[in-house]
Structure prediction request, 232 residues.
Amino acid sequence: MAASCKAGMALGKTTVRVVNLGRISYGQALQVQQKHVRQHLDKSSEVPNTLLLCEHYPVYTIGIRQAQYPAKEEERLKSLGAEFFRTNRGGLITFHGPGQLVCYPILDLGCFKKSVRWYVCELEKTVIRLCNKFGIKAATSSDTGVWVGNNKICAIGIHCGRYITSHGIALNCNTDMRWFDNIVPCGIVGKGVTSLSLELGREVTTPEATPRLLESFSETFNCHMLPDKDGT
Prediction:
């Protein structure tokens, strides 16, 4: 059994530590992710599986599938008051910002199932389960992410090296959707974006959505969630 699996077991279930980073810049959150990944790969100590939760200041990010993004477009997006990052996650361009619940699972898939396809499907199921808890019918499609009709409510983009995961999901809660008007989200033409607030016709904040996300993750991955406010 991997050290990360031994690091936490409760009633026969893998323990996943929950660290809420609050509102944090994308660059800072990336450093925290990289630190946790390095600890897993080091193998010299028992490292817990961890969910990093946060909101970001406005930022546009592109993934490894994105061709060289035009410098002029990058500057245009920066001029709007957002940062711009090239990342090693899957997927194309997307937006992160206040009102969006971002979850970065740093997991050793050896504690669950060594399958990237399985992992992505479980993330999708987690978000669909969360939406169901709010009374929203969500589903997957041939395109990435989780959808309500033709509108994406949650983006998914992951990285997995040696079965250690990073990056993750971004759920629109009460995001200012005007930020998405400046791009073609995830490179998908002809479809839109939505949020929990838009679907329910009321304000749904990230603090309201967080417990349901953790509950849905626990149910889907069959794990025990352990809150930890000081685990960066």
Q: What stands out?
A: DSSP finds six helices and twelve strands in the chain. The longest helix spans residues 116-133. Residues 104 and 132 are 21 Å apart (CA to CA). The two ends are 24 Å apart (CA to CA).
